[in-house]
Amino acid sequence: MGIYILVIIAVYFTTLLVISHFVSKKSSDNEAFFLGNRQSPWFVVAIAMIGTSISGVSFVSVPGMVGKFDMTYMQMVFGFTVGYFIIAFILLPLYYKLNLTTIYGYLEKRFGFYSYKTGAFFFILSKIIGAAARLYLVAIILQTLVFDQWNIPFFATVTGIILLIWAYTFRSGIKTIIWTDTLQTSSLILGVILIIWQIASKMNLDISQAVNVISNNEHSRIFVFDDWASRQNFFKQFLSGIFITIVMTGLDQDMMQKNLTCKNLKDAQKNMITYGFAFIPINLLFLSLGVLLLLFASQFNITLPEHSDQILPVMATEYLGFPVLIFFTIGIIAAAFSSADSALAALTTSVCIDILNIKRDNDEQAKKTRKRVHQLVSLAFLLVILIINSIHQENVLDTIYKVASYTYGPLLGLFFFGLFSKVSIRDRYVPYICILAPALSYLIEFLSLRLFSYTVGYEILLLNGLLTAIGLLCLKHDKQTTSV
After folding, report:
1. Which residues touch 470 (CB under 8 Å, ≥6 apart)?
2. Fold classification of 1-395 (topology level)
3. Quick check: 304 and 67 in contact, CB under 8 A?
4. What Å distances lie between residue 280 and 46, 80, 126, CA to CA?
5. Of 50, 85, 329, 415, which one's alpha carbon is 20 to 30 angstroms from that of 146?
6. At 172, is the pLDDT very low, low, confident or very high (cuts 50, 70, 90)?
7. Maximum separation of any 2 CA atoms in the chain, in Å
8. Is residue 395 scored above 60 in pLDDT?
């Protein structure tokens, strides 16, 4: 089995290298790496962004969560769609108007130097943790499937994966990623569809029968209106979905960098809306797969793994046959690479532009700096993954959203305070506010559970952003300024 998976990885990686070669042949300068020369077709960007958003974590975690949470994740997905409209018609016009390379340049124009650096820092922190967590899940699956059989250590597996990603992104960055991620998104979705088809076939179900079985299953529940204390309550999930999308897409350099490669604002908006609507059927596919996995396990008396993230990998490798293993391998590799390569390029861009300000250097020096940063960010990925490996989590997707609620909260407060007020603030104190707000949010979450038995969900993001905005208001100057 291991040799077949290695062949798939080799063929897949070779294809990515070929695409990278042809894309980067015309241009491999910083303008191509950071912004793709602003020539990307909007529909290609939309497809590429789907792969970046889904990642290997969604591929494994979303089907796995059905047993515990049913299909209530769709409540958050509906919120995602609303969030994409807000990004398309509020944030994208601002970014294009200011002709930004990184979106955190807005904070410097609106507030000043310290706000700008603080925003970039919180993005870098959150993205390294989130992207490393996504890549870790895929690496541990490949380790179990293949490399443990040959006594290859996990460190070597992760190093190899990161080197593969670095190899096809180091020359043209986002310009290459737009096209490689389009291939990877297509591979991922096709893999899910083929897995569903194979499972249904093994259960002697045709398509219509499979749809009926899924829709009538007890785990097909989507909406929860009756339990306000539950994290799955509709209003918590829906509102959290809106704001998680705003911060993890609209205030995230990784996702916005792809949008900024479009030729103009209108194309970028078409991309965002198309991408937003596509998220609904794709996540329905993942959740439907989760229901089918539970039904298959029940029908054949299979004991499911204790950790939900292990359900699909275990079923694919041990019970569903060789075709499903092939489809699963293709899907997981596509999801992993499409998420990690984009994050690597975005982090390199933010460090180069926001932290090191390489635009002041000559072209040759700036290009050398960018290559060194690209290598250092790759190394940071490796270190964070090894740290995550020592902290076992049942559901990595839940962990990523939780981390995002704390690290993106200050970004939410900064951007919305800047967009919807004309207040001038004392910029030098902004870093303290952005550290204090997450700390207070954590204290409130802790006390809510201990004193009132109230489990705080992803709505902690809203509280975090609100506390940041209140703190910024306390830094108000007597004079006023206009919004950028």
Report:
1. none
2. Sodium/glucose cotransporter (1.20.1730)
3. yes
4. 14, 9, 25
5. 50
6. low
7. 72
8. no
